[in-house]
Design a protein that fits this description.
Layout: E1 10-14, H1 19-30, E2 34-39, H2 42-52, E3 56-60, H3 66-72, E4 82-87, H4 102-129, E5 133-138, H5 151-171, E6 176-183, E7 186-187, H6 189-193, E8 211-212, H7 217-224, E9 235-238
Parallel strand pairs: 1-2, 1-4, 2-3, 4-5, 5-6, 6-9, 7-8
Length: 264
């Protein structure tokens, strides 16, 4: 994979064993970084690390656990300092609010919101000691609009959006930048798992299709690199235009189709 962004130092990507996180890990290695593939999926994560070579290593990380975070940010002595954290790990389910339980909602919030908060907490001293760095929080298009049956999930991602802005304010003087991206809809195992292995019809979004996991990596690499050195507290939608509004229906004529001439 070619990249125009050179990434120095070590990068920790959570939820990196498969899907969007795996694509990010691959892109970072291609950009010259050392990458910690952090996940609870040990077999898949170890296989990915082996495939990526000596600049990749798998670390088991349950993002809900402070002790696991303490171990995960302990970079191997032979590696460069930790400079980037990508809070990518997440879980998802779709339920009407009246069917949510305390347990089902808390299960989402612990991974999707507590996890990134703990990550920021534990990585901050490392980034500060290294002279600064970048934290990239992966939210969702569900943090920009309301989505039916996504009460608990949407709340977790709206919360992550607020956490990102707060962290950007608190950590800016330490030269630690914090930004948030909003992917979706993407063809990932998590997305398919919520729909019995299939993907819903997304013909209503402006680009008329779902995204592929490697299509979010450009935004992640930009925010991790010095090219975004004056960018913090920012929000980037990578969603095919979903949050811009619905596309015209395929059977809906364009205005200029009603005449013999295109618009001026």
């Amino acid at each position: 994979m070619e990249t125009s962004h050179l990434i120095e130092g070590t990068v920790l990507v959570t939820g990196a064993s498969r899907g969007q996180g795996a694509a990010e890990a691959q892109a970072f290695v291609a950009a010259g970084a050392h990458v910690l593939i952090a996940d609870v999926l040990e077999e898949e994560g170890s296989q990915l690390a082996d495939a990526l070579g000596e600049r990749a290593r798998f670390v088991r990380l349950d993002v809900r656990s402070p002790a696991a975070w303490e171990a995960a940010v302990d970079v191997p002595h032979s590696w460069p300092p930790l400079r980037v954290l990508v809070n990518n790990a997440g879980v998802h389910h779709a339920l009407p609010i009246e069917f949510e339980t305390a347990e089902s909602a808390m299960g989402l919030w612990e991974v999707n919101l507590l996890g990134p908060l703990l990550g920021i907490k534990h990585v901050t001293p490392k980034l500060r000691d290294a002279g600064g760095g970048s934290i990239i929080n992966v939210a969702s298009a569900a943090a920009l609009i309301g989505l039916a049956f996504h009460g608990a999930y949407g709340a977790s991602k709206w919360g992550l959006r607020g956490l990102s802005r707060t962290a950007a304010i608190e950590l800016g003087r330490d030269r630690i930048r914090v930004n948030c991206i909003f992917p979706g809809p993407f063809d990932t195992p998590m997305a398919r798992g919520a729909n019995d292995g299939a993907l819903p019809d997304f013909s209503h979004i402006p680009l008329g299709r779902v995204g592929h996991a490697d299509e979010v990596t450009g935004a992640v690499l930009f925010l991790a690199s010095d090219a975004s050195g004056f960018v913090t507290g920012a929000e980037f939608a990578v969603d095919g235009g979903l949050t811009a509004g619905p596309a015209p229906r395929a059977d809906q004529p364009r205005m200029w189709d009603r005449s013999d001439s295109p618009p001026p």
